Amino acid sequence: MKTYVDVIILNSKEGKIKPLAILWHNGIKYSIDKISQITRAASTISGGTGIRYTCTIQGQSRYLYHEEDRWFIEKKEY
Description:
Strand content: over 45%
Distance between the termini: 10 Å
Mean pLDDT: 91
Structural class: mainly beta
Strand order of the largest sheet: 3-2-1-7-6-5-4
Order of helices and strands: EEEEEEE
Number of domains: 1
């Protein structure tokens, strides 16, 4: 499921964007511990395409997408 989120980013003087944390809808901030890969990709779970950041958040690997002017994360459905 595609879930749009607020993201705290670092926008460098070279124009590179680095996500630092995700702000969840309930106000909780999740720091991004590590970014292991950045690539253009489509979400196979929820549709949509953009720049995919493979992130480690609280020890778990998650995909964070920058789609045009918005950010989304793939939320697991149970």
